[in-house]
Specification:
381 residues, alpha+beta, Immunoglobulin-like, eight-stranded mixed β-sheet, 10 helices, 19 strands, disordered N terminus
Length: 381
């Protein structure tokens, strides 16, 4: 019986190999499942002999089937390429998959899976010189607390000790954190590859958590909108004010003191995705003397008054700003055309800008990786 069981396991492994299926790159080391097929189907598996019902929730819900040995499994329909959060639901309780790495998103740790995009390698680890992602702790006088940010330094940072670099401040989205641009976004790999190809200038990238920049006693922002977390939408007239204050008084001075960063607005860019895009607009449009490059990746939009301020002097804005960049995925554009409307409004008022659409993607990390790959080469030229 044991030899027959071993034969079946071997045969199953050979079948999967013949199908070209591979363990997901986001699995914990040694885990064979989730298993990704070349046609983008995925097989999930879980050993839970006492469970009565197990599902995979990945945008849609897939019911798993129980085998005699208590192993549950399901093979999905083809999934969209890119990175996806997912969870298992065991007898009505949502849990993370023990075979998956976890990623901080939607304000909690979640399983995630990467579906490879054929022929695309701009965010892969390649045989090129690599920069470093450094963890930096510092004390904020504005929030009266110790804070943490992650800082990417380019490949020649340590080997060229006299060189100084411009700085991009990259913001994450709602429910994510200062590590998201590294773990989900692969920003260090994107930058390594762009710099190696001489498509982008070497730069420092600073990643902080704008959702925790709170003063003592200030309530933490929670969004509604069907995420199951409750709360209310922010007051767009003052959203992010604490972070802006903290950034200008604490974060930027810390970076320019401890890293070989070029100073002045012409050497400073800020960009963010989703709520981080809203934070970017709320910070930069009120402080044009501090930033010459602005990027909104599927950005939340502030109150109209923030843009009316620049519409009244389009010529002055165009002369002052080196780059205003906005982007959206075509799938999210069709369901939420606000960013397209902003592009049209900017055109109407004569504001020079770049508008980028990521084909076939929604409000997701593949959109924002593509955004970064288009945005970064335009900086500090």
């Amino acid at each position: 019986m044991k030899s027959l069981f071993g034969f079946l396991i071997l045969a199953c492994g050979l079948s999967m190999a013949q199908d070209g299926a591979k363990p997901a790159a986001t699995n914990v080391p040694g885990a064979q499942y989730p298993l990704v097929y070349p046609d983008r189907r995925v097989t999930f598996q879980l050993k839970a002999p006492d469970a009565n019902k197990v599902q995979v929730h990945l945008g849609q819900t897939f019911d798993m089937t129980k085998a005699e040995d208590g192993t549950w499994s399901v093979t999905t329909s083809p999934l969209v390429v890119g990175f996806h959060y997912y969870s298992l639901v065991i007898d009505g309780v949502e849990v993370n998959d023990p075979a998956s790495q976890t990623f901080f998103g939607s304000d909690h740790q979640s399983s995630g899976i990467e579906i490879p995009e054929p022929g695309v390698d701009y965010y892969d680890v390649k045989d090129v010189p690599h920069g470093q992602v450094r963890q930096q702790r510092y004390f904020s006088t504005v929030t009266n607390a110790w804070r943490r940010c992650f800082i990417y330094t380019p490949p020649d940072y340590d080997s060229n000790p006299t060189k100084k670099y411009p700085v991009l401040y990259a913001q994450h989205g709602w429910g994510e954190d200062e590590y998201s641009w590294v773990v989900q976004g692969h920003v260090d790999q994107i930058m390594d590859n762009l710099i190696a190809a001489k498509k982008a200038k070497p730069m420092i990238v600073v990643m902080e958590n704008h959702l925790t920049a709170l003063k003592p006693g200030e309530p933490r922002l929670q969004l509604g909108g069907g995420r199951g977390r409750g709360g209310t939408r922010p007051d767009f007239t003052n959203y992010g004010a604490t972070y802006t204050e903290m950034m200008l008084k604490d974060l930027i001075p810390m970076v320019e003191k401890n890293y070989r960063a070029l100073t002045g607005r012409e050497n400073r860019a800020m960009a963010g995705l989703s709520m981080g895009g809203l934070q970017t607009f709320q910070t930069t449009l009120q402080h044009l003397d501090q930033f010459a490059y602005i990027g909104g990746f599927s950005p939340g939009l502030p109150a109209q008054a923030a843009f009316d301020k620049i519409y009244t002097d389009a010529a002055g804005f165009n002369k002052q700003m080196k780059l205003l960049w906005i982007g959206t995925g075509t799938v999210e554009r069709d369901s939420n055309p606000n960013i397209l409307r902003l592009h049209e409004d900017l055109d109407k008022h004569g504001i020079k800008h770049v508008y980028f659409e990521s084909p076939g993607t929604a409000h997701e990390w593949l959109t924002w990786r593509r955004d970064m790959a288009d945005f970064a080469p335009r900086l500090f030229q």
